[in-house]
Amino acid sequence: MLGHTFVHVLGDWLAQPPGPSAPPPTSGPLGIPTPVPLPPPGSGRILGILNNAKWAAGVALVMGFFIGIIVWAGGRWIDHHRAGKVGLVMMLCAVGGAILYGIGYTLISGFAGG
Known about the structure:
The mean pLDDT is 83. This protein starts with a helix and ends with a helix. A hairpin with a 5-residue loop joins strand 1 (26-27) and strand 2. The longest helix has 35 residues, at 43-77. It is mainly alpha-helical. Helix 2 packs antiparallel against helix 3. Helix content is 71%, strand content 4%. The protein is built from three helices and two strands; from the N terminus they run H-E-E-H-H.
């Protein structure tokens, strides 16, 4: 008797239509319904902060390269070899950072895609 009641309650509960806040399921492979992903609350602000950080990193790389050129040229102009080497290292770090900046998104997306 208890099992029969449990089956009816469970059947009625499973037969209810989805609530208004739940998005309609879509059909996945083999006809298995999959839910529609929803972004979490506050994700727009987080993405905005990350885009600002990405923009600032790009500006820092460009500034590092051009300041490196200025330091290198100034060091060679006044015949100060250490300043010339520091300027060269600054330029090389900026170029290396720009390469990593350029391939980073593709590399992370490739690993995340599986």
